[in-house]
Write a structure and sequence with these properties.
The structure is a single chain. A two-stranded antiparallel ribbon has the order 1-2. The protein has six helices and two strands; from the N terminus they run ααββαααα. It is mainly alpha-helical and 150 residues long.
Amino acid sequence: MDSISPTSRDLARRLLAKEAARAKNSGTGTSTTPVPPAVRVCDKLRTVLVTFAGIAGFRSLLTRALALSAARMPELKGVTVQEDGSLSGFENIASSKKKNAVEDWEEMLVGKLLDLLVTFVGETLMLQLVSQAWPNLLANQIRSSFEDQK
């Protein structure tokens, strides 16, 4: 599981772009330490997945996604999953001078999380959970990222 499936990578990019735009429009991305879109995506997925699998289930998935991502991206070594399922330690990455490294870790982490969801609950249920977290994101946009790759 060294790489992300193309379908999960595409959906991760869409979700990250959606959250980046939302932060920009709401002005929440202008604080001294802006919350990266990947953290926002994981937080939104947490609200849905905790209801589905409990906090321990979500923490297990996110911790595994983080471990798999950190194996490929050393800049993630300082990031941890807290007891409540939130991420911490991303501040050092967010302040990194390597802009591509910031974007890469976000895509890697979210893509791995989506891949794990597909592995454990299947593509259909994963898409339903994503649709619950982003009800304003058109269902056909979410599905098209998977159908385009088939």
